[in-house]
Fold alpha-1,2-Mannosidase.
Amino acid sequence: MNAEVSVFEVNIRFIGGLLAAYYLSGQEVFKLKAVQLAEKLLPAFNTPTGIPWAMVNLKRALSNWVKAAGSIPAEFGTYMEFVHLTYLIGNLAY
């Protein structure tokens, strides 16, 4: 199993979907899972500029420049899901 995933895709599809489920249902489990997944993505933001790498390894919590897939401006400008996580749990890491 390849543990390298696109930070952007996981963010918009999985975290976004979990947050939508939370907002629609009010069930805390969706918020909890969104936070757990966001924690796995945070290493991608550990860069000199704070602009996230495009890929992150979910198993090893490592991020790297994978085959010229560094940072893509159209992607890193759309992390509104992290803003919602900050709002919901008060953790400024997001």
